[in-house]
Design goal:
It is a single chain. The chain has helices spanning 5-8, 21-32, 50-62, 64-68, 70-73, 83-89, 101-104, 107-116, 139-150, 170-173, 186-199, 206-215, 220-232, 239-246, 251-262, 266-278, 283-302, 306-310, 316-328, 332-351, 356-367, and strands at 39-43, 96-100, 127-132, 156-162, 177-180. The protein has 372 residues and is an alpha/beta fold. It has a 5-stranded parallel β-sheet with strand order 2-3-4-1-5. Strand 3, helix 9 and strand 4 form a beta-alpha-beta unit. The longest helix is centred in the C-terminal third of the chain and has 20 residues, at 283-302. It is elongated and about 80 Å long. The N and C termini lie far apart (53 Å). It binds adenosine-5'-diphosphate (ADP), magnesium ion and zinc ion (ZN). The site of magnesium ion (MG) has 4 residues, from helix 3. Adenosine-5'-diphosphate binds next to helix 1, helix 3 and helix 13.
Length: 372
């Protein structure tokens, strides 16, 4: 794999942006009717497609095929074949500037932007300025940007991206057209990882892929870099290896431990816990996963409709497992007490030099009287 997965598989069309249907629909409609705004704000968690969408907007604005062919224009997509589209995809378009406000707080960039802004584009119709992590601009830079946004030249388009919407000044926000990028469902991430694995001819266990997708917590970028890390290291793509790399046990082990607990099998629970501990996993993380797991078992028992919500985060097999454990646990109070103890253990573990002990004690306390 010569180029990073996340670059190679960066969507080139609006249509390929997964999980952002509303954003895609509005941007496509704007593209179809040529109503491109002068200032956009893309906000939402990392790795959800903000920079990707910004580049597609830059292509829409400058695509030569679109400009010359009214039939093509109705697609609301860039052609990805003309010079402008290609240069923008390859990140070497002179008229498309990506400014990272996080690395140098944007002072020099905004200053030179201010100076250069009135000049027409060199080779395109529009100059596009993509300002990443816009909330990190210094006050000076943000003020300068605001001035520009108050009266943007006709040939300029600004796309601000941020993971922290609240930190942007309201005056800047009010000058932009805003789009919220959502955290992506695990299922959607899993689907894309599967496609990448297929395209790259990489064999990887389903459970391993699921663990990567879950660990990414809604971020495609995280998922794709984890995937790359896992597949480029020696040791194979089995679940255990992936667990080692992430330092995190997968759903399978969390569910197995939960199963022993719900089955009141104290001996098996402690043995399994010891085994996980010896393999060097982060027990604080394990406890967190366990709390989440049991909480799902409990809430799903009381409200079956939650299944729809869980579908965003879990695979169908995982939901089956959770339901099974719900049926197994006849007494909800038992799960409630268990969760309470685990939460208590969680705060103790974080400050304890022996992370294993609070977890063990919590388990023993809960199971000792009912254990078989
Ligand atoms: N909505 C999405 N659909 C498909 N892939 C995505 C999506 N969002 C992000 N990606 C993948 O993650 C990588 C990083 O995305 P990026 O647009 O830079 O995220 P952001 O700017 O929101 O942090 C992309 O190159 C792409 O491979
Ligand atoms: Mg980005
Ligand atoms: Zn084009």
């Amino acid at each position: 794999m010569a180029i990073a997965i996340y670059r190679k598989y960066r969507p080139k069309l609006f249509e390929d942006l997964i999980g952002q249907e509303l954003v895609v629909q509005i941007l496509k409609n704007a593209a179809k009717s040529d109503r491109i705004s002068h200032a956009y704000l893309f906000y939402g968690p990392r790795g959800t497609g903000k920079t990707t969408a910004a580049r597609i907007v830059a292509k829409i604005a400058n695509c030569e095929t679109r400009a010359g062919d009214p039939k093509f224009k109705v697609k609301g997509e860039p052609c990805n074949k003309c010079r402008a589209c290609k240069e923008i995809d390859e990140g070497r378009a002179i008229d498309v500037a990506e400014i990272d406000a996080a690395s140098n707080r944007g002072i020099d960039e905004i200053r030179s932007l201010k100076e250069g802004i009135r000049l027409s584009p060199t080779s395109y119709r529009y100059k596009v300025f993509i300002i990443d992590e816009a909330h990190q601009l210094t006050k000076f830079a943000a003020d300068a940007l605001l001035k520009i946004l108050e009266e943007p030249p006709a040939h300029a388009i600004f796309i601000l991206a941020t993971t922290e919407y609240e930190k942007l000044s309201a005056t800047i926000v009010s000058r932009t057209q805003r789009f919220h990028f959502r955290r992506v469902p695990t299922q959607a991430i899993l689907k894309k990882l599967n496609q990448i694995a297929l395209a790259e001819k990489i064999e990887i266990d389903t459970a391993a892929l699921e663990l990567i997708a879950t660990a990414a917590e809604g971020s495609f970028r995280d998922a794709e870099s984890l995937f790359e890390q896992v597949t480029s290291l020696a040791g194979g793509t089995g679940l255990e290896n992936v667990e080692q790399i992430l330092g995190k046990v997968g759903f399978v082990r969390t569910a197995a431990l939960a199963g022993y607990l719900l089955d009141n099998d104290l001996e098996a629970s402690l043995e399994y816990l010891a085994e996980i501990n010896e393999s060097g996993f982060n027990l604080v993380q394990l406890n967190k996963d366990l709390i989440h797991y049991l909480r799902r078992v409990l809430t799903l028992k009381f409200d079956p409709q939650l299944e729809e919500v869980f579908k965003r985060e879990l695979t169908p097999d995982e939901i089956v497992e959770i339901k099974k454990h719900g049926e197994m646990a006849k007494d909800p109070d038992k799960i409630i007490n268990l969760i309470k103890s685990l939460i208590r253990a969680y705060s103790e573990m974080r400050y304890s030099p022996f992370t294993l002990v609070p977890l063990e004690i919590a388990i023993i306390e809960n199971l000792k009287s009912s254990s078989k």
